[in-house]
Every structure is written in structure tokens, then in C-alpha cells.
């Protein structure tokens, strides 16, 4: 019999809190729950901030947040779950970065904190109070951590980079219209 220690309890609390918040945000995007816009409203918002196509971007962000959040809370497939959530938060951080760091000014502090916590859980693992532990870590192998984080970083970089290019082109088009 294994003894549950405070590290396991701490990881459980981090997983439940972070996973719950992420899952709630994802359900706003996907289903319109908790005052969210659903796919339609979130898709329009995504288009307006440069993530196109909007509905595809809304779906991807919603699935990463809801799926990653639920899996983190359960402690299942922790490397993939943490990486997916961290990737979604990288995209959210890019939106908020022009507003500075602090959330009260619309900055990226909140999204970055969620993303770093999710990435930290992917690296640290779920602890013994988890489905990963119960299932013998079948979907929580050491090699999965760098793979999941690397793939997610690449996908996030492509998405954020494409958004940046769209925004630059839109600004250049607006500036050109001013001189006509």
C-alpha cells in the first residue's frame, strides 16, 4: 500500500483548480455556458482579434481548454492535457500582451499563469491521486512530456505568428486607405 503524501495532495489541488477553470472557459467557447459566446459568438470574436477562421479557432481553443482542463483535473494523459491547455493560454497571452502584464489593465498575467501552471503539471506529473497513476501511467510516459510540449509550442507559434501577420496586413491596409 502506498502512502499519499502532501505532494500528491498539492498536485491534486493544482489539477482540480487549474483544470476546473480551464474547463469552464472551454465550455463558454464551445457551448455558451457560464455567459460565454458559444462557437458562433466566440468564432466572431476570434475573427475580430485575428485568429481566422474564427469558428475553427474557437473550436480549437475550446477543445484545448475544456478537454485539457478535464483531463488535468482527472490526472489523465497529463502531458498532453497540460500541453494542450498551455498552448491555448499561449494564444490568449498573445492577445493580451499589448495591454501589459497586469490583468486589471487587460494584460496577459491571468492567461500566462494558467498556461504556466498547466505546463508545470505536464512536467511534474499528476501525482498518485490520479487516473494516470491508477492506470499505471499508460498515457503518462516520460517521453510524452517533451513531445507534447514541443508539438504544442510549434502549433502555438504557427497560430500566433499567422495572427500577427493578419493584424499587420490589416494595419497596413488601414494606413494605405488613409493616404488615398
Automatic annotation (TrEMBL):
InterPro entries: DoxX, DoxX-like_oxidoreductase. The chain crosses the membrane at residues 70-95, 143-162. Pfam families: DoxX. It is a multi-pass membrane protein. The keyword Cell cycle does not apply. Coiled coil: none annotated. Keywords: Cell membrane, Membrane, Transmembrane, Transmembrane helix. One of its GO terms (cellular component) is plasma membrane. It is found in: Cell membrane. Belongs to the DoxX family. PANTHER family: INNER MEMBRANE PROTEIN YPHA-RELATED (PTHR33452:SF1), OXIDOREDUCTASE CATD-RELATED (PTHR33452). This is RpiR family transcriptional regulator. It comes from Streptomyces gancidicus BKS 13-15. The lineage of its organism: Bacteria, Bacillati, Actinomycetota, Actinomycetes, Kitasatosporales.
Amino acid at each position: 500500500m502506498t502512502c499519499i503524501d502532501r505532494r500528491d495532495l498539492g498536485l491534486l489541488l493544482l489539477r482540480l483548480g487549474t483544470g476546473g477553470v480551464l474547463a469552464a472557459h472551454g465550455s463558454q467557447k464551445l457551448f455558451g455556458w457560464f455567459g460565454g459566446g458559444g462557437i458562433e459568438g466566440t468564432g466572431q470574436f476570434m475573427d475580430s482579434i485575428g485568429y481566422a477562421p474564427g469558428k475553427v479557432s474557437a473550436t480549437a481553443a475550446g477543445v484545448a481548454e475544456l478537454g485539457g482542463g478535464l483531463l488535468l483535473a482527472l490526472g489523465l494523459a497529463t502531458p498532453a492535457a497540460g500541453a494542450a491547455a498551455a498552448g491555448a493560454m499561449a494564444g490568449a497571452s498573445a492577445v493580451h500582451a499589448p495591454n501589459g502584464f497586469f490583468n486589471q489593465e487587460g494584460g496577459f498575467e491571468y492567461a500566462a499563469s494558467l498556461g504556466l501552471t498547466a505546463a508545470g503539471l505536464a512536467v511534474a506529473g499528476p501525482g498518485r491521486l490520479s487516473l494516470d497513476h491508477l492506470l499505471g501511467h499508460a498515457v503518462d510516459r516520460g517521453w510524452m512530456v517533451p513531445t507534447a510540449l514541443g508539438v504544442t509550442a510549434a502549433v502555438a507559434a504557427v497560430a500566433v505568428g499567422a495572427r500577427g501577420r493578419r493584424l499587420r496586413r490589416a494595419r497596413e491596409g488601414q494606413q494605405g486607405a488613409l493616404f488615398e
